[in-house]
Design goal:
mainly alpha, Hypothetical protein af1432, 62% helix, 0% strand, binds magnesium ion
Length: 374
Amino acid sequence: MNALAPYAVTEAVSRGRLHPEPSPGIRSEFQRDRDRVVHSTAFRRLEYKTQVFVNHEGDLFRTRLTHSIEVAQITRSIARALGLNEDLAEAIALAHDLGHTPFGHAGQDALNHCMKPFGGFEHNLQSLRTVDLLEEHYAGFDGLNLTFETREGILKHCSIPNAHQLGELGKRFIEGTQPSLEAQLANLADEIAYNNHDIDDGLRSGLITLEQLEEVEIFASMRRKVERQWPGVSGRRLIHETIRSMINAMAVDLIENTRRNIDAQNVCSLAQVWCAPKLITHSEGFEPQMQALKRFLRDNLYWHYQVLRMTNKARRIISDLFDAFMADPRLLPPQYQHRAREDKARAIADYIAGMTDRYAIKEHRRLFTVDEIH
Ligand code: MG
């Protein structure tokens, strides 16, 4: 790792773990967090959870696992360029989607709707719940016992009522302060990753076309650049070259603009990062291009009728499962029945949120189709 900037998080200033543990020895504390995330059950499940396309729709589309790995790659590159703590930033990036339900945002919306009378469901909070409580890996404690700084980064958003229940970790949402630059970075790298890979997956699926993308300024200008440099390039190579140029342009803009923000605010310590406005941002000139790309993806891919048909089915699966378990918690597997005695709705939400796409489909069949035996 390169020398850390004075505003990076260091182990020396870490607010530590909920359950004190001996020092990790050959690794740093944040490397240990990263390793615990990689070895967790929730991380492996990401392989079978939707990003945009449901897992069985094709072998080459992103899943939440490959998405998380791409986010970690972008996060690490930018962290190193800015002198931030690469290990911490990577741990946050790899863990950021651990609490996602099956079927992507449709699943999250459906579960949130079911959970409305019981405190709601937020996937960020669920990621935190996964690493704090739900993982069963260690003899001495529930969860992964990650450092405060990794947990802070995982909790990207949080409602004020929920923030009040989270003590120290919820404080910044109440006080309106910022998390570390490593946390801010993982958040922005998430957007860079999905805005680019969703174009790639959208083109691969045939739901969007290169012609349509001509209306997106950043794509069109990068495509022209690639065609000038490689006359005659076409097909997959043209798409990949254009997308890699876009990722690079976004990362470079983020790095340069963040350096300008840090200079303009005179930030030279972590404490100043907390009190300054958001420092990891795209430049004013670049931001409208990012917004236009997001709008394009929403209108043409996420709201494509074929995607909406799938999300509609997904929504029904989630709410059918929730209703069936609420009506009779004895249908739950024994370990969740045990939890349901304390808080029925939350135990059911935990069970459903942990499911992969195909597990949820199978569980739906087991509960609602008479010729499925178990
Ligand atoms: Mg993500």
